[in-house]
Structures are given as C-alpha cells and as structure tokens.
C-alpha cells in the first residue's frame, strides 16, 4: 500500500493521519519539499490558509507542491486545503494570499461566517455512496468553511450544501461574492478534477472513513493509469 503524505505545517494533519491509520494506511508528515519525493499522494488539511501559506513559503514548499499537482499526483484538500488548491480565492483578507492552484475553481474564504457560525450538515453525495456504500448522507463538519462559487468545465461537482437565508455571512469590505451568496440557496462544497479532490468540510473530524477510502481508491486509479501510460511508452 503506497504511503500518503499529509502536509503538516498547521491544522488538522494528525486527524488525517489517524483516519488513514484506521484504514490500515500509513500517512507521513510533510514539512519539507524533498519529503514530497517519497509519497505517491498528498492530503492538504484544514487549518488557517493564510498561516499555512506563510509557513509553506518559509519552508519553500510552493514550487514542490505545484510540481506535485502538475505531475498529476493525487491531492486532496480539505477546507483550508481546498483554498490552497483553488486557482482563485475571494473573500475576507485574501489579498496577496499565495495558492498552489491547479483546481479550476473560485473559492470564497469563510463563506459561511466566523467560527461562531460553524455548523454540521447532512450532505447528499451520490458519487461517494455509489463508490463506498454506507448511509445515504455524509455528516459534513464546516468550520469557518469556504464555499466554491464557480467551477471550470473539467470539474465534477460532488456535493452541495444548502445556504440558510438568515445566516450571517462574512464578507470582505468590497462586498465581493455577496451577490452569489444572496441569490443562491445552495453552494458547491466538494469537487473532483482528475487527480484533485477538494472538500470544504472536515471528514477527518468524523468517524466516517468513506472520504479517506474514496481518496485512496482515487489515488490507486490515478497511479494505475499513469503506470500503464508509462508501460505503453516503453512498449512503443
Ligand atoms: N477559514 C479558514 C481559512 O480561510 C479555513 C477553515 C478551515 O480549514 N477549517 O483558511
């Protein structure tokens, strides 16, 4: 079973490693660019994306993370990790925030409000249930969570979350994103684009391992197809 890297600069990396362990898979902490050479796939956990970005910059991790994504290696971003993977981030205090990018979407930081507006919601995720079985819904834990406002044509939407009309929503002073919030009754909270998976919520904070299992299968498929492409190149 290949080793999964978990970016361990800040945030809920221990919880991801514990979830992987429950599935019999070894997760290793990644803090330096060269450590990415030893792992086949990567999880970028939730936490605080501006702090995580500052630490990633300090450790010179951005070029290696971008190369990891560009090479088509499987990467899953949860919450702040989703923000890291997005091509564009809007919302409060996003100015100048460095992103890894690769995921063709626009994400809005702190979309649902502050820490006090954190919540849990039962999400309908047909793709997860058809692959992993189990209950019809997944309990999403949203902590100062982002939401995805726009996706490109290659992005598969896996889950939406309803937006309550009376929720007190955070916004940047420019009002950016406000229109989308008031006119939408649901927003995108989970997507997949080829080797990239992203969730606005925290599966690692629940005892339901289906997202981790889904990512491991996805990683296995991506690795298998790149191995067969390499074999084709050698054969021809
Ligand atoms: N709001 C946080 C950010 O912008 C993300 C929250 C989380 O990862 N739980 O980085």
TrEMBL record:
Highest rank taxon of the organism: Eukaryota
Enzyme kind, highest EC tier: hydrolase
GO BP term, pick one: pyridoxine metabolic process
The EC number(s) this enzyme carries: 3.5.1.2
Annotated Gene Ontology cellular component terms: cytosol; glutaminase complex
Classification via Gene3D superfamilies: 3.40.50.880
Binding of L-glutamine, residues: 47-49, 109, 143-144
UniProt-annotated stretches for the region Disordered: 165-185
Coiled coil: none
Keyword Hydrolase: yes
Pfam families for the chain: SNO (PF01174)
A molecular function (GO) term: lyase activity
PANTHER family according to UniProt: PYRIDOXAL 5'-PHOSPHATE SYNTHASE SUBUNIT SNO, PYRIDOXAL 5'-PHOSPHATE SYNTHASE SUBUNIT SNO1-RELATED
Family according to the record: Belongs to the glutaminase PdxT/SNO family.
Name of protein: glutaminase
Species this chain originates from: Cucurbita maxima
Gene that produces this protein: LOC111483918
């Amino acid at each position: 079973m290949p080793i999964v890297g978990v970016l361990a600069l800040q945030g809920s990396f221990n919880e991801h490693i514990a979830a992987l362990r429950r599935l019999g898979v070894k997760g290793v902490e990644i803090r330096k660019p060269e450590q990415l050479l030893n792992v086949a796939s990567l999880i970028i956990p939730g936490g605080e994306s501006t702090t995580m970005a500052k630490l990633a910059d300090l450790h010179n991790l951005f070029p290696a993370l971008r190369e990891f994504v560009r090479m088509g290696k499987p990467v899953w971003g949860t919450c702040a990790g989703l923000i890291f993977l997005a091509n564009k981030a809007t919302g409060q205090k996003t100015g100048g925030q460095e992103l890894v990018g690769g995921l063709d979407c626009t994400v809005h930081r702190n979309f649902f409000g502050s820490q006090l507006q954190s919540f849990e919601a039962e999400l309908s995720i047909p793709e997860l249930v058809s692959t992993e079985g189990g209950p019809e819904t997944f309990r999403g834990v949203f902590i100062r969570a982002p939401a995805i406002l726009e996706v490109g044509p290659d992005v598969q939407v896996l889950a939406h979350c309803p937006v309550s009309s009376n929720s007190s929503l955070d916004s940047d002073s420019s009002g950016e994103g406000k229109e989308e919030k008031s006119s939408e009754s649901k927003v995108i909270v989970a997507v997949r684009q080829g080797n990239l998976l992203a969730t606005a919520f925290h599966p690692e904070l629940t005892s339901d391992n289906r997202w981790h299992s889904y990512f491991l299968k996805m990683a296995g498929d991506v690795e298998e197809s790149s191995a067969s492409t390499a074999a084709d190149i050698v054969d021809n």
